[in-house]
Specification:
Elements (H helix, E strand, L loop, with lengths): L7 E5 L4 H12 L3 E5 L9 H7 L4 E5 L13 H11 L2 E5 L11 H4 L3 E5 L10 E5 L28 H36 L5 E3 L10 E6 L4 H6 L22 H5 L4 H5 L1 E5 L6 H20 L2 H7 L9 H13 L1
Parallel strand pairs: 1-2, 1-3, 3-4, 4-5
Antiparallel strand pairs: 5-6, 7-8, 8-9
C-alpha cells in the first residue's frame, strides 16, 4: 500500500525469522532492507537507527523483546524517532505481550503482531494491532474472498480459538505483575547457581530484559551435547525453537558478537507460570552435572585448564590430546 511512497524498510539482525524471512522475500521483489547491528546486550544504536532513515523509508520493524535473550528494546525512543520522520513503526511483540505491560499507543507503535500460545492460549491463533488514526495505517489483503476482518484477512474465523485467546489475555493481564515478580526471582536463582560453574556467560541485557528468559553460554561445552545429558527431563533449547533444527550457531548470538564456540555453547532457559522452585532446583542440579560431565570428557577443557592458548593450538596437537583422552 505504500510502494508509491518508497520501498525502504529498516529492521534488526536479531529479529525472529518470521520478520527476517519476510524481509528476504521483499528484497527479491525489489524492496531495500537495512539490517541494524546490535551491541553485546542485543540493543540497537538509536543514533544509527535514525541515521538509516531515508526519504523512501516506509517502515521500521523492531521486535519488542527478543525470543532468545529476552532483551527489551527502547520502544518509546524508537517510536519518537519514527514519529519525527513520519515513518510507520511495526513490532513483533509475540515474546512480550502477556508477560510485561505492552501499550502500543503510548510508545508510538502503529502495527503490532502477537500470538495466543505465548500466553497459554490456544495454538494457531494470533492478532494484529493496526492503528486506525494518527496515523491510519493502510493494509492490503494477502488473501481475497469473503471480506472478513474488514477485508484485511478473508477466511472463516476460528471462534473457539479467538475466545480462548481473549480469556488467556484476561488472565495474563490480571496475573502479569505477580507472575513477573515470582518468575524473575526464579530466573535470578537459576543464573546465580549456574554461574558458580567456571566460565559461564550471560547473553543479552542484564537490566532491560524479560523476566522469564535467560540465555547462558558454558565455555567449551557443546550445547547440543549438553542438552542430551538431561533432555529426557528438562525442555530447553540451544536457540529459537523455530530454528532448532539447524546445526548452525544461533544467528542472534552471533549478532551479539559471540564467537562460534560460545554461540554453540549456549542454552536458552524459559520459565513460566507453572514453573516451581523445585523445578528450578532440579534444573540447576541436572545442568551442572551435565556441564561437569561434558567437561570431564573434553580435551579442549583439559587444555584450557592447563593454560594452553587454544588460539595457537595446531590440529596435530589437538588430535594428540584427543587421542590421549580416549586412551585414558
Amino acid at each position: 500500500m505504500y510502494r508509491r511512497k518508497g520501498n525502504h524498510i529498516i529492521t534488526v539482525k536479531t529479529e525472529h525469522k518470521a520478520i527476517l524471512d519476510t524481509c528476504d522475500h521483499l528484497e527479491k521483489l525489489g524492496a531495500e532492507i537495512t539490517y541494524l547491528e546490535v551491541n553485546r546486550e542485543g540493543l540497537i544504536d538509536l543514533a544509527e537507527l535514525e541515521a538509516a532513515i531515508k526519504p523512501n523509508t516506509i517502515l521500521i520493524s523492531v521486535m519488542w523483546a527478543n525470543n532468545e535473550t529476552g532483551t527489551i528494546q527502547d520502544m518509546k525512543t524508537i517510536g519518537d524517532i519514527c514519529a519525527k520522520h513520519g515513518v510507520l513503526f511495526m513490532s513483533d511483540a509475540t515474546q512480550a505481550v502477556g508477560k510485561i505491560p505492552v501499550k502500543p499507543k503510548e510508545v508510538g507503535v502503529h502495527i503490532m503482531a502477537f500470538s495466543s500460545h505465548k500466553m497459554y492460549g490456544p495454538k494457531g491463533v494470533g492478532a494484529l494491532y493496526v492503528s486506525r488514526k494518527n496515523p491510519r495505517v493502510k493494509l492490503t489483503a494477502q488473501m481475497d474472498g469473503g471480506g472478513h476482518e474488514r477485508g484485511m484477512r478473508s477466511g472463516t474465523l476460528n471462534v473457539p480459538g479467538i475466545v480462548g485467546f481473549g480469556k488467556a489475555a484476561e488472565i495474563a493481564k490480571n496475573e502479569m505483575a505477580q507472575d513477573a515478580e515470582r518468575v524473575s526471582k526464579l530466573r535470578d536463582k537459576l543464573e546465580t547457581e549456574l554461574s558458580k560453574l567456571e566460565e559461564v556467560y550471560l547473553n543479552g541485557a542484564k537490566q532491560s530484559r524479560m523476566p522469564h528468559v535467560t540465555n547462558l553460554s558454558f565455555k567449551h561445552v557443546e550445547g547440543e551435547g549438553l542438552m542430551m545429558t538431561f533432555n529426557q527431563n528438562i525442555a530447553v533449547s540451544s536457540g529459537s525453537a523455530c530454528t532448532s533444527a539447524s546445526l548452525e550457531p544461533s544467528y542472534v548470538l552471533v549478532a551479539l558478537g559471540l564467537g562460534d564456540d560460545l554461540a554453540h555453547s549456549s542454552i536458552r532457559f524459559s520459565l513460566g507460570r507453572f514453573t516451581t522452585e523445585e523445578d528450578v532446583d532440579y534444573a540447576i542440579q541436572a545442568v551442572a552435572q551435565g556441564v561437569n560431565h561434558m567437561r570431564d570428557l573434553s580435551p579442549i577443557w583439559e587444555m584450557y585448564k592447563e593454560g594452553i592458548d587454544l588460539n595457537t593450538v595446531t590440529w596435530s596437537e589437538h588430535y594428540h590430546h584427543l587421542k590421549l583422552n580416549i586412551q585414558q
